[in-house]
Design a protein that fits this description.
By secondary structure, this protein is of the alpha+beta class. Helix content is 53%, strand content 13%. It has helices at residues 3-12, 50-83, 113-124, 131-145, 147-166, and strands at residues 25-28, 32-38, 86-93, 96-99.
Length: 172
């Protein structure tokens, strides 16, 4: 069982069955565990417009967030103690993902002058407030436009993890 499956099983044992339409998606990195579940469809009146639909979904998500807050906090505390990572929460409602909490983790990098000039141009143009914001903007832009490639790469890494875990353990 790989790490993602272990986390999936751990959360499945603790989450109430009626919260989501199926098992939540667990997204892992070194600092954070993001738990994102799909909400059952809200009751919508026939023939409502897009603005009304958006308002209903927004209220539905906010109600879920408030009604589950205490239990989510308890589960997160237990997970944070056990796994030594912060837990963030989000939902998918009517095809839109809404994150309730997420970490913002500092990342250090070294950039050459042409790369710094890109960031400085974004700051000068008012696209970002700082080089840090400009770099985050660039990462979001690349992520948005390379979803398929990044998904393929993540799948390949999962395969590597499965093969590695099926191999012999470390030598003593």
């Amino acid at each position: 069982m790989d790490a993602e499956q272990q986390f999936q099983a751990w959360f499945a044992g603790r989450l109430p069955d009626d919260w989501f339409t199926g098992p939540p998606e667990i997204v892992l990195d070194r600092e954070e565990i993001a738990v994102v579940g799909t909400l059952p469809p809200p009751a919508l009146a026939e023939g409502i417009g897009d603005l009304e639909r958006a308002a209903v979904v927004e209220g539905y998500v906010e109600r879920f967030r408030e009604e589950t807050r205490e239990r989510r906090i308890d589960i997160a505390r237990e997970a944070e103690h056990r796994f030594r990572r912060k837990v963030s929460w989000g939902v998918v409602a009517e095809g839109e993902t809404v994150m309730f909490t997420t970490l913002s983790v500092p990342v250090m990098t070294r950039l050459r002058q042409p790369e710094r000039q890109v960031l400085d141009t974004l700051v000068a143009a008012g696209v970002a407030r700082s080089r840090s914001d400009a770099l985050a903007w660039c990462v979001r832009l690349v992520g948005r436009h390379t979803d398929t490639w990044l998904a393929d790469l993540r799948d390949a890494l999962k395969h590597v993890d499965r093969v590695r875990s099926a191999g012999p353990g470390p030598l003593d």
